[in-house]
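ERR on first pass: missing label on line 2. Operator R.T. fixed the label and resubmitted. Corrected input:
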Amino acid sequence: MEKITFENIYQTLKKRILAGKYSIKMRLPIEDDLIKEFGSSRYAVRKAIEKLAAEGLVYSVKGRGVVLLEHSPQTQQFNLDLGDVTGVQGLNSGRALDYETDVVAFKQVMVDQALSEKTAFEVGIPVYAIQRVRLINGTRAVIDINYFNAQLTPGITPAIAKRSIYHYLQKKLKLKIAVVKRMLRVDSAAELDQTQLDLGQNNCVGNMISISFNDEGRQFEYTESHFIPNEFNFNQLIRN
Amino acid sequence: MEKITFENIYQTLKKRILAGKYSIKMRLPIEDDLIKEFGSSRYAVRKAIEKLAAEGLVYSVKGRGVVLLEHSPQTQQFNLDLGDVTGVQGLNSGRALDYETDVVAFKQVMVDQALSEKTAFEVGIPVYAIQRVRLINGTRAVIDINYFNAQLTPGITPAIAKRSIYHYLQKKLKLKIAVVKRMLRVDSAAELDQTQLDLGQNNCVGNMISISFNDEGRQFEYTESHFIPNEFNFNQLIRN
DNA sequence: GAGTGGTCTAGACCACGGT
DNA sequence: CCGTGGTCTAGACCACTCC
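pass 2 clean. output:
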């Protein structure tokens, strides 16, 4: 039951844009008109427009107005969802798929120098080291290589790893996932990838490296998700 | 000579954060204290904090305060630059490298049905279809496959393509690049990739598909940048 | 010069976190 | 309960675009 004004304005404008109501002149109404229409302040209107801009629907030009970005059925797939992305779900952008998880390794280890340099965890702290293969429609499509800080995320078990670690962290531990920083790469397939993934003829993998932070600013996770080619898309928006 | 208050506050806070001045308690001072310190309004302070948050340096928690995200030398490479990314420069995140451009194809064609479905350009409009290989330190590392809407970006020549199309568009045509939407994929190498790129043993490429919009909201470009494995990183930030 | 978005101020109330 | 960030209002001036 959110009664936030800017959110209502944002939702209304978004619906109209997607329905093509403003496309005649490729412009949004000027701020003053939106203020009058919604009976709200300039702050609320501008915040709604900023949210539309963050999503890649509009672009504001000082002195001119708020421009609509061209969109077509083909370019819809470039649009950002702004949905929160937890774990491997982020890989299947909006696709509903059957998937199964195969826990191929589960250990609790102390961080040594080498692991510290990779994960940025402090030397000596205990971490869960987990490897899980994700089968999507029967295909071994992704291997997640997780390291969780055991002090910040205690009590993870193989059974939890098979279901959903993120569900456990959020619902049971009440851990808030504040920020995830990601790096995307393409790597030559290592032995682990070749033995665990259905690569077919391909000898490379995509590699999504994620480090995740809780709402106290502490990094609780380092994860590499290696995935097979030709199946996964990642969207990005750059605004000037 | 920008005299924008929030920008000054942002710069000052960023310097302090990176210098570790606030790391003792993992918190930024509360808004009221920053307002007093900078002698500015709450608006300016909050806008500065929002910019820090967009960069992945801090995270605001209602009722608690503004938390600093842990950062270490290893995780610095995950930080967002917020620099504008034009063309292939975006691939080499912050690396200074010698590179050379080899124009392997340059045509002006009309968009047919197949090309329209790929690029989202309207059937029948003229486009420049350009293929360029980027040699980085002598390695054929990237092939850019560009389609530019010739009505929006007239006058591109092979000579311009060899130097920098973006430089020409921005400086000569005064075209403003407002927004770039990207999709990142990993693809099996096609014949073009195998013949033009130094793939070595690898038989896959990274594929960065970009569609770019000018400040009137019109899509002027569709580009696929195919790049060799193991060399390029792409950063992303997800905020909840 | 008129119109428009960008920045800024001062002030208010609300919602959430922790004590 | 108090302290904090989130939302909102009303009003002002500036910088840019376009005629």
